[in-house]
Amino acid sequence: MSTSQSTSAEVRPFPNPKSAPEAREPLPEIPAAEPVVEVPHAPTTEKAPAQPRKGSTRRFILPVIGIAALAAAGWFGYKYWTVGRFMVSTDDAYVQADMAFISPKITGYVEDVKFDNNQRVKAGQPLIVIDNGDYRIALDQTQAKIDSQDKTLERIKAQIVAAQASVQQAEAQKVATQAAANNAARTQKRAEQLVSSHVASQSTLDDARTAVEQANANLVGADAQIAAAKANIGVLQAQYNEAESSLASLKLAQDKAARDLSFTVIKAPFDGVMGNRSVQKGDLVNPGQKLANLVPTRHLYIVANYKETQLPGIAAGAKVHVRVDAMDGEGFDGI
Questions:
Q1: Which of 16, 118, 179, 195 is 20 to 30 A away from residue 262, measured at CA?
Q2: pLDDT digits (tens, 9 = 90+) for 180-215
Q3: Domains of the chain with bracketed CATH
Q4: Euclidean distance between the first and final Cα of the chain, in Å?
Q5: What is the pTM of this model?
Q6: CB-side neighbour CA atoms (13 Å) of 51
Q7: 3-state secondary structure of 203
């Protein structure tokens, strides 16, 4: 409400207090209240800004929200009908891997350790080096025996060639002896004819018969020499075969020595991460002793535990979806 007249306030003095019967300190004077003048405000001619119409905004937002809700419900319903009702889930699952125990195959002192715990290694990377002095000497010894056996084989082979030459010589000697025997036989026959015709004496016939007997004896001796030479070849051939067998055994021993020498360097069988190291430089290790663990980084698998009532809905080869807490809830698919 507005008015055109001004109003003034009436000022009155504050009454003085009455004197007290007892003497008291005078009270401080309180100044008189100043007049308060009220000035009326002039009437405002400006109009307030127009308020936006709320009805039109609501009519636009509510249908959008309804459509979005229906779309979300339809999408979740579709996912449930096509996938969700067939899914079996559990949170009792663990990531596992078939780790390998790093162990030596030979006995020896550790010369160097080339890995630390939690270190990533590649397949074939050296992990542990064992002193190879004794194993290198064993390999050199087998090589020396092989060289000696090779020379033995060469000697026996030369003896076989000589024996074959002896056989040929004995056979040639037999041919000569056979010719002499034939000649002695013809001489005997002529001597018999001459004696029967009283041209030659009996002593001539006796000499001819003796020559025939000697030729036949020499012929038997030639056959014996041939047989002996052939038998010698057989013996030498058996010695050669035996030496070859010994050489094969020596080569197997050489392969074993080389294999033992290769075992002085223990290598990673596959890519992975090392752990549980229990070996130091200078340790004496034995075959089968566990020195460390190697956990693969690629061949991992998940062991999930389900309830008995969930097992009918699980089959080999089914597609699975896995979410890992350590991966901030990110998931991946598997079989």
A1: 118
A2: 777 777 777 767 677 677 766 667 666 677 777 777
A3: 88-106+108-125+269-334 (2.40.50.100), 132-263 (1.10.287.620)
A4: 84
A5: 0.55
A6: 3
A7: helix
